[in-house]
Amino acid sequence: xxxxxxxxxxxxxxxxxxxxxxxxxxxxxxxxxxxxxxxxxxxxxxxxxxxxxxxxxxxxxxxxxxxxxxxxxxxxxxxxxxxxxxxxxxxxxxxxxxxxxxxxxxxxxxxxxxxxxxxxxxxxxxxxxxxxxxxxxxxxxxxxxxxxxxxxxxxxxxxxxxxxxxxxxxxxxxxxxxxxxxxxxxxxxxxxxxxxxxxxxxxxxxxxxxxxxxxxxxxxxxxxxxxxxxxxxxxxxxxxxxxxxxxxxxxxxxxxxxxxxxxxxxxxxxxxxxxxxxxxxxxxxxxxxxxxxxxxxxxxxxxxxxxxxxxxxxxxxxxxxxxxxxxxx
Amino acid sequence: xxxxxxxxxxxxxxxxxxxxxxxxxxxxxxxxxxxxxxxxxxxxxxxxxxxxxxxxxxxxxxxxxxxxxxxxxxxxxxxxxxxxxxxxxxxxxxxxxxxxxxxxxxxxxxxxxxxxxxxxxxxxxxxxxxxxxxxxxxxxxxxxxxxxxxxxxxxxxxxxxxxxxxxxxxxxxxxxxxxxxxxxxxxxxxxxxxxxxxxxxxxxxxxxx
Lengths: 329, 209
Ligand code: FES
Ligand SMILES: [Fe+2]
Description:
CATH superfamily of the largest domain in chain B: Rieske [2Fe-2S] iron-sulphur domain
Pfam family, one (chain A): Ring_hydroxyl_A
Radius of gyration of chain B: 19 Å
CATH architecture of the largest domain in chain B: 3-layer Sandwich
CATH architecture of chain A: Alpha-Beta Complex
Strand content of chain A: 25-35%
Bound molecules: FE2/S2 (inorganic) cluster, fe (ii) ion
GO molecular function (chain A): 2 iron, 2 sulfur cluster binding; iron ion binding
Structural class of chain A: alpha+beta
Shape of chain B: elongated
CATH class of the largest domain in chain B: Mainly Beta
Largest interface: A-B, 33 and 30 residues
Strand order of the largest sheet of chain B: 10-14-13-12-11
Number of helices of chain A: 10
Organism (chain A): Azospirillum lipoferum
Cofactor (chain A): Fe cation
Number of helices of chain B: 4
Oligomer: heterodimer
Order of helices and strands of chain A: HEEEEEEHHEHHHHEEHEEEEHH
Protein name (chain A): Aromatic-ring-hydroxylating dioxygenase alpha subunit C-terminal domain-containing protein
Helix content of chain A: 25-40%
């Protein structure tokens, strides 16, 4: 593979996941064991119920909190295994208890501190949303780390919301399995947030006009806007060709006393949830188109795909998956 | 007669007039392989309907009219399947002509019998005429020429003649109407099945002398 930053990469066999990993039962079972049965996984942000549950690749995670103590189990049919639970700020992660392996801080590196800082904005939670995709979870991870489909897939939503010169402003950091991209918001979009801020006095973790996207292997990403709103996302595998994208909007305000303020916050949150849902509804058909297309070229070894300058995070993910599955030579 | 793998068999896709205008296309799926036949600047060509960039199905609809352009990142392909329009090529890919040719769509086989268009996944294998047999091939060709007009849907009656060929079932009321049912190939969704009702060349033929 060439490493020149401005050139595209045509990966060699062994440098990307075999196509069949995107639809076979064998691969799904292997991931269930080696990825979802082992890695640190994002579970959510605790609320008054002190309960968190998640279902990934047929594994059911159940967590509860008593005071500062957190405990939980992973149920796999009859089999019940204890969980190790840890937090990064307000973000709760868990993994099936095991000897060795990275600590949560190591797993999140180098984004632990930043995530903790951003998670202070996990206030005023809105109801979680789940959107079903007829696609393998990895096709959705590829989609979310693809930094250049805005103009074709989101021409009326994201594309106009980011700065017209987004190409020169886009900053991507890659650290192996984890990575981060940030876009400068368009002036109009930043102005919209500024007006919102004037009314809501949002809590801001940074005075920035960015849309940030921080990905944590294997299936978590945190989107933030204007240094204020945070939206944790998790891609839950349901079957080899079905997944659910789960996300939750936090619109952190410091002004929620009067009925009028509450009503404004509510309607703004509803608007933001609707906007985010519209964007996800635009991504769904392309993820599903890839799910349909990939098996159609799997018999042709020369068709390996090609990864441009702003798609490197995807290959990083493939390589992290290969390492996690123990398939790297 | 047709006991090979679906990839090695011919499947009826559409009528030639469905692909007569520039950018008209028809798609299907054979086993796991999505296929597209498309008119590109007057030339009708067939490929795997899968983008070579990152594998999205290019045309999702069973038929329509629109350039052979991938919905994901907008790559568009010429009549040789070569990507010619690559948004952000100078900044993101820097692919020159030779490299683009290596990223051409994978061709599929295309054949015509009269006005009936057939596709096959495999590049090599018997011709459509060989697979159908010369007599059936000639009959289908003649029938498709004798019934060129798309018309009102007709329900085949019991006493009509039935002819079967590949995934096709034809119902013929001689000199009056030909109903052509094209079943979706193995692995393809029902939405890829097609039924057309065809009428003879001139309406006058139906009028008593
Ligand atoms: S997958 Fe077709 S253009 Fe990217
Ligand atoms: Fe998207």
